[in-house]
Amino acid sequence: MEVNGDLVHGTMLTAVDVDGSTRQSGLLDLLFDAHRIRRLELPVHTMTPVVLRQLLLPVMFDALGMPRSRQEWGERFRRGRFSEEERARLGAYLGPERYGDRFRLFGPERPFAQVAGLTALNGETKSAAQLVPSVASGNNVPLFSALSESDDLLLTPGEAALWLLHVHCWDTASIKTGAEGDPQASKGKTTGNPTGPLGQFGVVVPTGATLYDTLLLNTPIVPDGLKADDRPQWAWDERPASLGCTSPASPAWSQRPASGLLDLLTFQSRRVRLFTCETESGVRVNRVIVSAGDRLTRTPQDEPHTAWQHTAKPKKDQPHQRPRRHTSGRAAWQGLSTLLAMTLPEQGDGPYTSSLLRQIGDLQADQVLPHGYPLGAETSGLEYGTQSAVVENAIGDDVPLPVNALLAQDKWLRAALLECVDQADQVARALDGLNNDLRRAAGGDPLPRDKGSRPSAAFLHSLDGIMRRLLVGLRTVGDDGDLLERAQLAWEQSLRIAADREADLLLAAVPPRAVVGRTVRSGDKEFVYRSGKAVGHFQAKLGAILERIAAGHGTEAEEAAA
């Protein structure tokens, strides 16, 4: 990357080609060769939606326009690459006569995603570690951080560009440095900051066979096209002055809704300025100012990258749908009931999948995606603590998705997948029940619900690879009911093997006195706990959960698993 941090022609992003080789690319080459690129190589899971939303998608949307019908979307997808005309339009869009000069990280007048000349009220700057949530900075002190706040963190221009965009999307709600020119700063600081927009929900990003496919899968169909006053952050000066919103290139900020899709994707939730130093290895970013930025009034209902929780009877002034968050410690496949919720709950409350996944299901009804297409979904999120001022945990996973499971009218494959997930959850609870009964038989107490290491965690983790193979295999199931039945038999056998393995470990750990057990009185009733009795209850539960094996299909399942 050049000294001015040229994002268009530099080497900010690392890409993995379809043949497995890696390359360093700038924004323009990345788009031109999107059909040859399998995926982006990024430092953390939460960076994937950042690069898509803050760079690739808004450039593509603004330069090429939105598909206005399923037919137009399908034509773009089947082509598999940008046409020569589209490449020319992308090149012109990122050229010097339009917006190319606004994609310079260290540009003197309009540094990308920053405020030129931003100055703290106290005149100080902070370590570049403030951009990276895994490095200690202020109140955010990760347990295993390799650096302390007093250590200098030197970021290459490419690294700084990524973490700069990351802070706009995911920053904590901690107190921000007051900036000169911000009329809402008080006593040198700004309080009441929300987290970055993506910190408000669990992110779901559809992925495809190539980067080009992934870009299309994340492109909503907009029949009326983009709004006339909807501009990305680098073209904010083109918005009508009558709208009265503060410019993201100034220290001032406002609380407001997004004016459209481009504004939402490139929302500048912070005001930032990067400072550089010269090192033997070249220019590095070592200091930074991060102050308050625009505040999104509410996650809009057309947010494309989240699933929703539908509430039939919301409280006053609350919407029927609110964004769902991911749960720490749960693999993405355990959330298939949300990812595959293609319709609103018929009664009461329940999940509703993202608009992009619903759109893919609608497109598949027209057979736009080929049979066996390698569709996937990446999930990411951050868990904040202490008034959302610190990052406690990062969530990131990916899961293969059979395209036919997204068809609203074909519920049989979706029902089979959800049954598999539910069986895993039921067996996990049965293992925890066995663990508690063995603890009682040995003279102890059951584990509190929110404490201790549970056998269910190790059990569910052991199923991860098996479930992924099942999902990949079911991409080609078509209308073959026998194949699906064999797959479910194999799944039950895998559950049985994994559950028996965990149960044997639990039995091996209990002392001999658990065989004799003990009697526990509760009110007028007495309960006898013995290891043998506990195992009998556990096996009975397994038989009720794994009905195909219990019905005598164990041999078929073993053959299917093999």
Strand order of the largest sheet: 2-1-3
How many strands appear in the DSSP assignment? 18
Query: Which secondary-structure class do the elements indicate?
Result: alpha+beta
Largest sheet descriptor: 3 strands, antiparallel
Number of helices: 16
Radius of gyration: 27 Å
* Helix percentage range: 25-40%
Percentage beta strand: 15-25%
Shape: globular
Low-confidence stretches: 556-562
Average predicted confidence as pLDDT:
91
Fold and architecture overview:
This protein is an alpha+beta fold. It is 35% helix and 16% strand. It is built from 16 helices and 18 strands. The strands form seven sheets. The chain has a three-stranded antiparallel β-sheet with strand order 2-1-3. Strands 4-10-9 form a three-stranded antiparallel β-sheet, covered by helices on one side. It has a three-stranded antiparallel β-sheet with strand order 7-15-16. A hairpin with a 2-residue loop joins strand 17 and strand 18. It starts with 12 loop residues before the first strand and ends with a helix.
Summary keywords:
three-stranded antiparallel β-sheet; disordered C terminus; 562 residues
